[in-house]
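Repro:
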Amino acid sequence: MNLTIPSFSLCSIGPWLTLTVAAIFILLLDALSSKGRKAFFPQLALLGLAVAAVQTFFLWGKTGTDFARMIYLDNYTNFFYFILILGSALTVLLSRPYLEEYGKNLGEYYALVLFATMGMMLMASSAHLIMIFLGLEIMSIAVYVLAGLFREDLRSNEAALKYLVLGAFSSAFLLYGMAMLYGASGGTLYLSDLAVKLADKAALGSPLTLLGIGLLIVG
């Protein structure tokens, strides 16, 4: 049996890698540093976002797919990268005084924001339904923890628990919908292939396809 490894370029996912490395570095620094150095966490998060923005700028104009057609490379994807990076940077800037007021200027907060941003980037560039699911779960798990960050606050605990239960049910609906579309399309989860195979009126109107689309929308 021959194992074929597809060619890929790490530059295509440079912004993801930068945010992941920055988040892990912040977590390690938070675990190993004294309390006085915690003030540098927002700056480190902003630095990671700035580097990711520069990498996205150099990706501008590239088209096609990478990683065995699992992700798209186009300006539409890069546009959403910039939107997500800008939103995360504003979140970091607005969060610091709020967290300091409540004595919660924790490194894991900024790391979780970066992980959530990376998950959203993965969703924005996905060309495959499983990649969309992975991006959604990376984002959701980070936001579950963010919702329950104030452990001594009952409202924070309630928010985290409700979001976890809601997320578990919605993930199940989403996966069932993907499985239905996989069967209806004849065995593919690539978005471009789904568009071609389900373009036929008979395939698009089949109960399996309609059920899969419905479950995806519910999820």
